[in-house]
Design a protein that fits this description.
This protein is of the alpha+beta class and 218 residues long. Helix content is 34%, strand content 26%. It is globular.
Length: 218
């Protein structure tokens, strides 16, 4: 099942799950009408990735092409003045629609991203894989979800939701003055089996541990 957005834009279930994972991760919903007392509001989804994730950004662009009016653009995101070197990233955004306005109300409160109340419905193997490709990394033999932008109480909700939905145990780890989720090592291969079919080739390094020197020479 999918959703008809307005009269012409159709959002498939696959697209919706990619969008959900993106918003949990690096994606940002922008709404110019959020401060205006109008109903319904409109908004758009902005997707921004570093230069090394260009292939991943273009994958999302292809998935969401029917709700995008312009191709991805490269921009300068920083500069090293000592080395006289610019750093580049890529971005695109969707068209503004009421559909994304509804997602803004679902995922944001007072301008800040939150864990939505229906997180159990939102979490699927596909949305989890996109969330991980956005915000995850391998560390010490298991997976980390960099959830530092969520509050500690929201970390507890995510921790409980991963257990309830996928039977995945996650610990809440301190990262400086914030928190993030670390999948227990015992559950890493269950986690990987859930998402590996959706991980695109350029992001496989996030689920395949680097071989040790001993393993390479066996």
């Amino acid at each position: 099942m999918g959703n008809i957005v307005g009269r012409q834009i159709y959002i498939s279930s696959f697209q919706r799950e990619v969008i959900n994972g993106t918003i949990l991760g690096d994606g940002r919903i922008e709404s110019r009408s959020k401060g205006i007392r109008v109903f319904p509001i409109t908004a758009r989804l902005r997707i921004h990735q570093g230069k090394n994730q260009k292939d991943y950004l273009y994958w999302k662009y292809r998935v969401l092409s029917n709700v995008v009016s312009q191709q991805p653009k490269q921009i300068i995101c920083g500069r090293n003045y000592q080395k006289n070197k610019d750093y580049y990233s890529w971005y695109f955004h969707t068209v503004a629609t009421e559909f994304f306005g509804e997602l803004y109300k679902q995922f944001y409160s007072n301008g800040h991203k939150i864990v939505p109340k229906d997180i159990l419905d939102i979490l699927t193997p596909l949305s989890l894989s996109v969330w991980y490709m956005d915000d995850g990394c391998l560390s010490q033999g298991t997976a980390i979800l960099n959830t530092q932008n969520f509050s500690f109480s929201e970390q507890r909700i995510l921790q409980k939701s991963l257990k309830e939905k996928f039977n995945l145990e996650a610990r809440i780890n301190k990262d400086r003055n914030r928190w993030r989720l670390r999948i227990k090592k015992e559950d890493f291969y269950r986690f990987r089996s859930l998402i590996e079919d959706y991980i695109i080739p350029s992001m496989k390094y996030k689920i395949v541990p680097v071989e040790t020197e001993f393993e390479r020479t066996r």
